User: Fold this.
Amino acid sequence: RCHQRSVAMLDIPFPPFLAFLGSLGVLCVALVGAWCQHWRGGFSLDGTSRTFNWHPVLMVTGLVVLYGAAALVYRIPATWSGPKLPWKLLHGGLALAAFLLTVLGLAAVFSFHNSNGTPNMYSLHSWMGLATVLLFSCQWAAGFGAFLLPWAPAWLRQLYKPIHVFFGSTILLLSVASCVSGINEKLFFSLKNGTSQYKLLPAEAVFANTLGMLILLFGVLVVAALARPSWKRPDPDSLDSRQ
Assistant:
């Protein structure tokens, strides 16, 4: 009985959870923008560090928040009945928007590096980030071919669906890891002088570390929502649905 009560207390309805998660995503975007504006000099397209500042904002917005939103489309109860095509288009559209913002974010960091003679792709953060983007592009293209093109056979969709779901969660976790490692790398590069060394934990370090923890929390909550059985879209081909 106690176990049943504990499970019932943890059985949170999806809509309030989604509202909280959406607020957390907006907060992450707002905080990364505030960090770049207040401590890193703002935004520009002149090839200076202000061009680089578009990189963290676009990556967090696209690769984490919008990608997480796309992943949770089929957890919305309204998607469980009626035509599925509009929700497929929403899922694919959000993922495509996330991918486009991610490409712009990569363009910003490459432009900054090339303008300042900084080598590209030498850090673990850059390797992991580029691998995530390449995997993301393959995931979107494969999903488009399997689930949106009308001539994809049903057996192919059934075969590819669990693979698509697995890599969806994997890409989100890689995105979070890339963003958190990028924040840490930027702090190490920026906080060097005697009065604001990273190890002294100045205000910027506290702010950016908090941002990293919130991004991590967002990713963990999205993956937890994807894994929760009661929030999954019922499969019309399953035994329970037929019964």
Notes: Residues 2-9, 238-243 have pLDDT under 50 and may be disordered. The chain is about 75% helix and 0% strand.
